[in-house]
Amino acid sequence: MNIQYKLKNTPFPKKYFWSYDFDRAELPLSIIIEQLINYGNFEDHLNLFLIFPYNELKDAYFNEVRPIMSGEKILRDGMRPTAVDLRNVKYMDFLFEVLKNVAA
To answer: What is the pTM of this model?
Structure first.
């Protein structure tokens, strides 16, 4: 499933999506998650769980975003996760663990 979401229909600031035409862009959830992990704050991260279905978030994060951030999936030679990437993986894993009960 590759649903595209219109950025302008989300509550997230334009500045997090500076490389996209915010008013026209339609992005997959994996890119939205990645941008918010990198540029967003705690409130933005919680809003992910309020706006998008938990199972869809979980699927996009654990199958697409996390493998790259953790270094399980290497996109190009020499690319390794940074300390910030690894910290963000722990943080997001924790959020998913805590919020799974809220979604149930």
So the answer is: 0.89
